[in-house]
Amino acid sequence: MSNPADKIMVQVCYARPGKAFLEDVLVASDATLEQAIRTSGVLSSAPEIDLAVYKVGIYGKLKTLDAILRERDRIEIYRPLQADPKEARRRRVFKKEKAR
Question: Could you tell me the CATH number of the domain that includes residue 46?
């Protein structure tokens, strides 16, 4: 375990329609993903985020909230999908075939 007095810089990102949250955060070198999210202030500016439901990741790779961070990690909070991508594609194909 590293010395908690050591700090690293990470970035917390959350995008929603019409607005994006992007915040650089200085955290302890042994901080977890969840600690950085809570430190960033994103939970107060986007109260819809429920960390028990929303998935999180680092640079597009899913991670757990207890993942230890590294310098310059970009933490991403993912909103739940509105529709299953496969089902949406099936509906589009069906609509195109019906229009012919």
Answer: 3.10.20.30
